[in-house]
C-alpha cells in the first residue's frame, strides 16, 4: 500500500477571456501541506540522496518522473495588425497573449517536451470557426483561408474571433504530429496531452469579468458540451492513437474497484512498459468533467483521464495551478499524477520572477507547465524553465525512489 497521505477584447472587449487559457481552479480536497520555506532552484539536482546502486528499472513508474510542458502548446502571437489593435485597447490583454510556441514536433525533438496542453472547440459540422468576426473591426478579412476549418471536427485555438493563431488547426492534426513523432521514437518517455474544452462565448467571457460589451458583432458562440460531443472527442483520439499507443484509465485500473484505488494501492505502470505511449487527460473540471464521468465513475472505456479531486473514484490526475497550493505535495506523495504552473502568462517571465518556478520544481509536481522552455522572442529577459544540462526529465524530487538515476529515465 502506498503512503495514503494523500476587443475590451480586440476593440476593448475580450480582456476577460485571455490570461489563463481558461484554466480553472482545481477545488481540490486533498490534505493540506505547507509549502517549504526553502526551495531548490530549477537548475539544481533533485533533492533526493545521491544514488549508490540504481533501483531496478522495472520498479520505476510513470509517477517517478518530472517533465516540462508548454502552456497552450499550440499558441501563436496574433498577427501584427490584430496585436496592435489589441494593444491600443488594452496593453495588459496584449501582454498576456504575447507568446508563441514552436510546432509540436520541434518541441518534442529539440526541447524534450513530454507534456502538451491543447484548447479545443467542438465543431461537428465544420466551419464554425472559419469566420473571424473581430477582423472586420481592424480592417482584416474575417474569412479564414485555411480549408481545414471547414471540415467537421474539434478545432484548436485559444479564443475564437481574435486570438486564433495556432501551429495546428485541428485536434486530429495536433495529435497526429505527436503520434508520428512517437512512431519514429518508440523508446520515448510517456507523453501527457492535456485537452481543455472551451465553451464560453466572447460576451459570456466578458460578462464573467464584469466587462460590458460596447460593440455588437456576430460573435461566434461555442457549442455546449453534450454526451455525444464528448464521445466524438474520444473518437478523434482513438482515430489517431492505436490502443497499444495509449495508457488509458482501464490499463491503470486493472482489477481494482476504482481508478483511484489502483493509483493509491498498486501505482502507475512502469516506465519500462510505457515507453512510446501517450496519456491523454481532460483538463476541465466542473460540469464537463461530471458529464464525462456520468455512468463511468472510474472512466470505464474512456481514453482520457480527468482533472479529478482526491477521494473521487476517477481521481488519478490532479491539477494545482498554483505551485504553493496546500495539498500539492501530499497528492504527489499519495501517488496521483500532478500538474502545476511555473509562471503566469508572460508576467513572471517579463520580470524574471522565479519564485513560482522554484516552488513548482521543488513541489514534485510531475508536469511543469510554462510558456518558456526557451527565452522569449518578444521581450528581453533571461527567464527560462529547463532541467540541468537541458535534460528531458529528471527523477521526481518527491516521489522517486532515493536511488533513481537520470540515466534510467533518459529519452
Please tell me what the overall shape is: globular
Fraction in helix:
25-40%
Number of helical segments? 13
Q: What is the strand content?
A: 5-15%
Radius of gyration: 21 Å
Overall mean pLDDT stands at 87
Low-confidence stretches: 1-52
Helix/strand/pairing class, anyone?
alpha/beta
Biggest β-sheet: strands ordered side by side in the sheet: 7-8-9-1-10
- SSE sequence, one letter per element: EHHHEEHEHHHHHEHEEHEHHEE
Give structural notes.
The chain is an alpha/beta fold. The chain is 25% helix and 11% strand. The protein has 13 helices and ten strands. The strands form two sheets. It has a five-stranded mixed beta sheet with strand order 7-8-9-1-10, with helices on one face. It has a five-stranded mixed beta sheet with strand order 3-2-4-5-6, covered by helices on one side. Helix 11 (328-334) links the parallel strand 7 (317-319) and strand 8. Helix 3 packs parallel to helix 4 and helix 4 (171-184) packs parallel to helix 6.
Keywords for this entry:
alpha/beta, 411 residues, disordered N terminus, 11% strand
Summarize the structure.
By secondary structure, this protein is of the alpha/beta class. The chain contains 13 helices and ten strands.
SSE topology sketch:
Layout: E1 65-70, H1 80-89, H2 91-96, H3 104-111, E2 115-121, E3 155-156, H4 171-184, E4 191-197, H5 202-208, H6 227-240, H7 249-253, H8 259-265, H9 271-274, E5 278-282, H10 286-293, E6 304-306, E7 317-319, H11 328-334, E8 337-341, H12 347-351, H13 355-363, E9 367-370, E10 393-395
Parallel strand pairs: 1-9, 2-4, 4-5, 5-6, 7-8, 8-9
Antiparallel strand pairs: 1-10, 2-3
